[in-house]
Amino acid sequence: MFLHTSFLTIALSLTYVSAQNCRCTSGSGCWPSDSEFQTLASKVSQPLIRPIPPATPCYGSTAENCTDVIAGWYNSIWRSDQPGAAEHTNYETYTFPNGTIQGCYLNTTFGIPCQQGNVPVIGVDARMPEDIQEAVKFAGNHNLRLVIKNTGWVIRPTFTQFGFLQVGLRFLPDTTT
After folding, report:
1. β-pairing, 94-95 with 165-168?
2. Residue 36 Cα distances to 31, 33, 142, 146, 170, angstroms
3. What contacts 147, CB < 8 A, 6 or more positions away?
4. How many CA atoms lie within 13 A of 144 on its CB side?
5. 150 falls in which pLDDT band (50, 70, 90)?
6. Coil, helix or strand at residue 64
């Protein structure tokens, strides 16, 4: 467990974002190309993940899959298993400086399209410490914001951040030193 904590501390300290140090986010011209992400994918043990907001199956032609989402919506174990889910659903939405809100709501009667919101667009499903190292190096080399998603929850929503690269630790085996 000490090893996990050490990796997280290093990863977060290397990717700390301050107001004076803008990082590249998805949708920006500096965002890595598909081929650069393919290079990252070749260096990690699992395929890259593309987290989606958990209510996405309730929209459009996939609406028939909404039953599972409704059943698990308030279940913390179900939510921790979803790469794009946060403990509290409001953390999955993003409010732009002009007040515009982007998100994907379970209540589809709002008539609002399902959008990515604060859910990271791509991530590494870390299964070994080397996966974390590769993700941190990639984020540093490309000036990306990096967030960690674990199974535990915190008061401050650190995993859901607009346009970040996510490192999922859900399936990282326990490691001791």
Report:
1. unpaired
2. 10, 5, 10, 16, 25
3. 120, 158, 159, 160, 161, 164, 165, 166, 167
4. 30
5. confident
6. helix
- Distance CA(36)–CA(120), nearest Å, equals 17
List pLDDT tens digits, range 105-114.
999 888 889 9
Output DSSP code: residue 1. -
Q: Are 14 and 8 in contact (CB under 8 A)?
A: no
Instruction: State the number of CA atoms in the 13 A half-sphere of 26 facing the CB.
Output: 18
The pTM score is 0.78
The C-alpha atoms of residue 35 and residue 2 are separated, in whole angstroms, by 34
Q: Shortest CA distance to 117 belongs to which of 164, 169, 78, 156?
A: 164
